[in-house]
Amino acid sequence: MSEPLHPSQHQPEQSQLGKTSSYADQYDPSLLFPLPRQPKRDEIGISGQPPFLGADLWTAYELSWLNPRGKPQVAIAHFTVPCESPNIIESKSFKLYLNSFNNSRFDDGQQVLDRLKADLSEAAWRGAERQGSVGVRLLAPAQFAQEQIHELDGLSLDRLDVECTQYQPDPELLRADHEQPPVTETLVSDLLKSNCLVTGQPDWASVRISYTGAPIDQERLLQYLVSFRNHNEFHEQCVERIFMDLWARCKPVKLSVYARYTRRGGLDINPWRSSQPQQPPANIRTARQ
Question: Where in or outside the cell is it found (predicted)?
Answer without folding.
Answer: Cytoplasm
